[in-house]
Design brief:
Distance between the termini: 84 Å
Number of strands: 0
Radius of gyration: 33 Å
Number of helices: 3
Strand content: under 5%
Shape: flat
Largest sheet: none
């Protein structure tokens, strides 16, 4: 038997074993996801059955409060972005040093030679 044929045979065996393993992993993953979904449904059903009217009212009030807080935050962010000329993130805003002068501004816009640190 030639070495090339033997090497091809070994490679084919490894590839088929790899495909079988991938298939098995895929099946196990599918079963795990299905079981997780069933457990989530069962936990949700058990929680809703054991929930008292007071707990339900408190949960609904908390969800409503959270929703209104998210809406208020979104409105505030929208107003802030309108106020600041459409900047949506802090990284979009330019902050100048406190000692920034008109001369520095002109130099930044390309007028005149740059100020040398040596003079």
């Amino acid at each position: 038997m030639s070495w090339r044929a033997r090497l091809d045979s070994i490679t084919a065996d490894h590839i088929s074993a790899l495909r079988r393993t991938e298939q098995e992993v895929s099946e196990v993953d599918e079963r795990a996801r299905a079981a997780t979904a069933r457990m989530g449904e069962m936990a949700g059903a058990a929680h809703s059955e054991s929930e008292t009217p007071q707990e339900r009212a408190a949960r609904e009030a908390r969800e409503e409060r959270d929703r209104s807080a998210r809406e208020a935050l979104a409105r505030t962010a929208a107003l802030r972005s309108e106020k600041h000329g459409g900047a949506k993130h802090a990284r979009d805003e330019v902050v100048l040093p406190v000692d920034w002068t008109d001369e520095d501004e002109a130099r930044a816009e390309g007028y005149g030679p740059p100020k040398s640190w040596l003079t």
